[in-house]
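Write out the 3D structure for:
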Amino acid sequence: MSDQDPTLPIAVQLYSLRDLPGSFDETLAQAAAAGFSAVESLGDHGYSAAAMRELLETHGLQVVSAHIPIDALSDQARLRETIAFNQAVGNTTLVAPYIPWLREERGAQAYQETGRRLGAIGRQCRDAGMRLLYHNHDWEMAAIDGTLGIDWLLGSADPEDLGFEPDLAWIAAANVDPVALLQRHAGRCPRVHVKDLAPPDALASGVVMADVGAGTLTWPPLLAAARAAGAEWYIVEHDSPADPIASVSRSLRFLRGTLPAILRD
């Protein structure tokens, strides 16, 4: 498997490219030109399933997962529409990317109730041949009664109904060991967000994230642990890149040089 192998399971989260000028068509064209063959989408981007499918085919891209707001997942009609849209574009993985009340509510009960709620939604997804994951930030890494919030949440749903999309940078930013967390939820992590934490000199100026391989995280053990936890796709993301295409291209280049050895092991 060469370091330029286009079949490597590396996608880009389109949130990283949200500030590119031009149309969504042009954004997809730039993602493909950067070397990506897959994307993680944000809802439907304002397109019908037929129009989205045509755009993806034009640019040689596939959707491997989609971030869907909790309001859309919680509403039965919108959930059915979301499932139908994603099935039509060939995607089988939905992700709850942000639960607003968990950013403020620090009690175990809120995490457990949220886990049960997501588990119920996940059962509906599973019945339709889809799967639901939960994506973390840093606040779910707070310890509550000796247990991390994310563990309260995931422990309140059947793994078949609710998976986990770990964001490795946010886990590390909260001073939690990403490898240990991946090991704890092994088999539950088919999608993993890969981004890096800025070095101390950049942090002092307010920069939090870095391109993969350009920050402080040690990637070979992280990528290996992600694979052991069930990673099918490694999804490049940078929350606020100064130059979005240059940023995700550098991350892709680093992963192409690092992943083949991990995948051969």
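The chain has one domain: 10-264.
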